[in-house]
């Protein structure tokens, strides 16, 4: 079997618009896992927001992985072992929070209980809480509140403004942070060189595999590195245009079993 590792973005890819894994996609993934494929749930979400989907797919039994914070952390679902962990530079927390306030975006991060932010009522913060099914805690000063290792700061704001804000942030923190959008209203800010492809490369190396053994499915800007890196990069029908352009194959959208169809075609049929 060529594709022994299957990396899946979650929102807009694995799950449909209701944040549900469709029955056909779930069946295809579980069949692939039974045949020995390592399923990696690769998302910008915090680890706590990915575990429910990992349990639904029974990855703790089949040995899949959770790649959270866009690659800031990778854990083995069967053993609970942390395979990769990259902390956000503490000295850059306050500058990023200050930048966020100046450009009228809302910054957030995560603690053991959920989201931490200065503006809990923001609709974009509430959307992140809905996606991950976690609560929000409001604090007066986010940078002053953080006294624990974090893996990312997420900037949220009006989709109209975010391309310009991302460009300005790329200039401000060039050579110090990895910065990219995951949704039109989200800008991910990560430790330098942290992104999905880099974490997947480390995971493949541990398994004695290469990019040619990796199939990756995604839809957003933050999926571009892994789509380009994978032996087979698959874009969803609802993917951003650059993702489609970079992919070797464009499948159906996330509301019409796009992941399931791709797995059937490139993994299950190949096995037969």
Strand elements, count: 14
* Low-pLDDT sequence parts: none
Q: For the record, give the distance between the C-alpha atoms at the N and C termini, rounded to a whole number.
A: 10 Å
Query: What structural class do helix, strand and pairing data support?
Result: alpha/beta
Radius of gyration: 18 Å
- The strands making up the biggest β-sheet line up spatially as 5-4-3-2-1-12-13-14
- What does the overall shape look like? globular
- Proportion of strand residues: 15-25%
Percent helix, as a range, is 25-40%
Topology pattern, helix = H, strand = E: EHEHHEEEHEEHEHEHEEHEHEHEH
Question: What does the model show?
Answer:
- It contains 11 helices and 14 strands.
- With 272 residues, it is an alpha/beta fold.
- The chain has an 8-stranded mixed beta sheet with strand order 5-4-3-2-1-12-13-14, with helices on both faces. A 6-stranded mixed beta sheet has the order 8-7-6-9-11-10, sandwiched between helices.
- The longest helix is centred in the last third of the chain and has 14 residues, at 258-271.
- 51% of the residues are buried.
């Amino acid at each position: 079997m060529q594709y022994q590792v299957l990396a899946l973005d979650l929102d807009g890819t694995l799950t449909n618009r209701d944040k549900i894994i469709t029955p056909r996609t779930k069946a295809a993934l579980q069949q692939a896992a039974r045949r020995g494929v390592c399923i990696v749930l690769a998302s910008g979400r915090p680890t706590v927001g990915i575990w429910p989907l990992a349990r639904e797919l029974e990855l703790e039994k089949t040995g899949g992985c959770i790649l959270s914070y866009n690659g800031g952390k990778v854990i083995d679902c069967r053993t609970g072992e942390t395979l990769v962990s990259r902390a956000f530079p503490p000295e850059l927390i306050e500058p990023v929070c200050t930048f966020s306030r100046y450009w009228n975006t809302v910054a957030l991060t995560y603690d053991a209980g959920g989201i931490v932010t200065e503006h809990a009522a923001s609709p974009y913060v509430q959307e992140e809480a809905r996606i991950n099914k976690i609560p929000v805690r409001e604090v007066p000063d986010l940078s002053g509140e953080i006294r624990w290792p974090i893996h990312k700061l997420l900037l949220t704001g009006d989709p109209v403004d975010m391309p310009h804000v991302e460009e300005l942030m790329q200039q401000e923190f060039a050579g110090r942070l990895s910065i990219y959008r995951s949704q039109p209203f989200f800008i991910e800010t990560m430790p330098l060189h942290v992104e999905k492809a880099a974490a997947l490369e480390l995971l493949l190396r541990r398994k004695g595999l290469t990019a040619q053994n990796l199939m990756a499915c995604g839809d957003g800007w933050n999926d571009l590195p892994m789509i380009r890196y994978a032996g087979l990069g698959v874009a969803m029908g609802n993917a951003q245009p650059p993702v489609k352009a970079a992919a070797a194959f464009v499948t159906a959208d996330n509301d019409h079993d796009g992941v399931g169809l791709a797995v059937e075609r490139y993994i299950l049929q190949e096995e037969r």
